[in-house]
Amino acid sequence: MDILGWVLVIVLFAIGLAGAVYPILPGALAIYFAFFVYGWFFSFEPFGWWFWSFQTLIVIILFVADYVVNAWGVKRFGGSKASVWGSTIGVLIGPFVIPAFGLIIGPFAGAFLGELVSGSNVKKAMLVGWGSLVGLFTSTVAKVVFQVAMIVIFFIWLI
Known about the structure:
single chain, 159 residues, mainly alpha, 83% helix
């Protein structure tokens, strides 16, 4: 039973880290759920109020940062609200429409089209599309760092 518990925890950690890159996966929530799986299989004893508060704060930061950093990238490059919405929709739909490259093409195309709809010229729309990619990559790096921190804190807490 111990092996099954650890396998589930590790699989959830892997899904969580994959979710940092592939937004359709639950990401931080999978890692957070792994802590519960550990508790159910082994014990909740190592995890006190500080552990749960800190991990919950990281999850909240990740959710907020995911959207804020992406919008920041679009806005930083002069994007409108339409391009922010387009980029967000592109992040969610892109991987389904074009499985291999949709994660990159989706937000770019969404921001580009959103900016064109708002009345900008093609040159500015391209710049805003680039900004959506800057925001996406910055967000991805931040998610990986915070999610690795969640996992490291988990193992430190066990020791």
